[in-house]
Amino acid sequence: MVKLKWLIMILAIVFLISSPVANAHSNNSEGFSKIDVQDQEINYNLQLDLIELSHAVGFKMNEQNVENLEEMNDIINQNKLPLQEYMNTHIVVYADSIPIEGTINQMSVLKIKERAFADIILSYSVNKIPENLNVRYNVFFEDSDPSHANMAKVQIGEKQQEFIFTYEVRELNIGEMSFFTSAKQFLLLGLKHIFTGYDHILFVISLLIGAVTIRHILSLVTAFTIAHSITLALATLDIVQLPGKLVESAIALSIIYIALKNIFQPESKHAPWIAFAFGLIHGFGFAGILAELNLGATHLAASLLFFNVGIELGQILIVSLVFPVLIFINKRLSYKWFLPSVSTAVLFFGCIWFFQRAF
Q1: Are 297 and 239 in contact (CB under 8 A)?
Q2: Residue 111, helix vs strand vs coil
Q3: In DSSP terms, which residues pair with 171 in a beta bridge?
Q4: CA–CA dist 345, 209 (Å, integer)
Q5: Residue 302 has pLDDT above 90, yes or no
Q6: Taking the CA atoms of the chain, what radius of gyration do you get in angstroms?
Q7: Rounded CA gap, 215 and 323, in Å?
Q8: SS3 state at 278
């Protein structure tokens, strides 16, 4: 009877919070920039999540019909004026300390990783290639999504460098970014990716629920780390690519599998090979941002390394915080109801994510 009461209470809490949390992973919008500096012109190719852009600028669109690219193209072209005003006020460019204003030359809608993106080309006129280029980026941060991140690639002649615009870092000075700054940005991006990837977090926690010793935890975490590092590298290097919809659905299924195993086989320890097998799938999920950034060969290894280091640091922090809590609860409360109750809540979220992503 006590077990039933606790299960009902946990499920009630889950239903109350399921709407905002179930969609939290997809609410962290991404953007991509390619800034090409030429003799008398700077071309800024900007790709932004279409739904998030409509919220920020304030134009209406049917969010359930984003698959109709022709209709979406008509909508953004009908809103060229408010989009132009938004770009001029939220992206400020200085060439040799002189502000220059961009003009939208072209707009279209395309699909990136199964999501609709606005593809906008801005042009800035200059008299010569600037010695110093300053870009102040404030898209979405104050309007709709503080967790937005924009991965920028800057091309000046033969030189290329990468940068990430985030809520904390909104300004880029071309030619002034050190290796340390670049490494720190990709490390922070990895940290952010794991902490906003609630599906990855739930998977790791579900693995920990069945662990009873530090040695067992280390074997699970090590197996998961090695596996997702392999597929993260393969996907980022464009050696192996899988459809985003398939990867995200498979990640949800991995959560469902572990939750069901915790419910129906609570005494059975999770084997490291299970963590390794599912880690391969999660690695493709981690690779999404770096794969879309299309990093240059000279910066790819360092960017991949520090991004992965950020993920691992976040994972270690999660394990360090969660495992002692699980041990404490297990000792203070009845293990017989604790494991199936928590796993039921995890199963619920896994099912929500699977149906959202697969259908």
Answers
A1: no
A2: strand
A3: 136
A4: 13
A5: no
A6: 23
A7: 13
A8: helix
Side-chain-side CA neighbours of residue 273 (13 Å): 0
Question: In this predicted model, what pLDDT tens digit does every residue of 233-244 receive, in sequence order?
Answer: 898 888 888 888
3-state helix, strand, coil in the chain (%, to 5): 60, 20, 20
Percent of the chain past pLDDT 70, that is, above it, reads: 85
CB within 8 Å of 148: residues ≥ 6 apart: 28, 29, 30, 31, 52, 139, 140, 141, 166, 167
CB atoms under 10 Å from CB of 159, counted, come to 12
Phi, psi of 112, deg, nearest 5: -130, 120
Q: What is the mean pLDDT of residues 201-229?
A: 87
Torsion (CA) 206, 211, 215, 217 in degrees, nearest 10: 10
pLDDT tens-place string over residues 260-280: 998 888 777 788 999 999 999
Using the predicted structure, report yes or no on whether residue 209 has a pLDDT greater than 70.
Answer: yes
- Render 215-250 in DSSP notation, one character per residue: HHHHHHHHHHHHHHHHHHHHHHTTSS---HHHHHHH
Please report which helix (H) or strand (E) contains residue 164, including its range: strand 159-165
User: What is the H or E stretch that residue 312 is in?
Assistant: helix 297-332
- Residue 93 three-state SS: strand
Q: Is the separation of the CB atoms in 229 and 285 below 8 Å? A: no
Tokens of 340: 């199936």
Q: Which of 322, 202, 317 is nearest to 254 (CA)?
A: 202
Could you tell me if 349 and 255 are in contact, meaning their C-beta atoms sit under 8 angstroms apart? yes
- In the DSSP assignment, the letter for residue 114 is T
**CA nearest to 346, candidates 69, 22, 43, 4:** 22
DSSP 8-state secondary structure symbol assigned to residue 133: E
Of 173, 183, 175, 144, nearest in space to 49 by CA: 144
DSSP state of 79: T
- Report the SS3 class of residue 134: strand
Average pLDDT over residues 192-208: 88
Say whether pLDDT at 8 is over 70. no
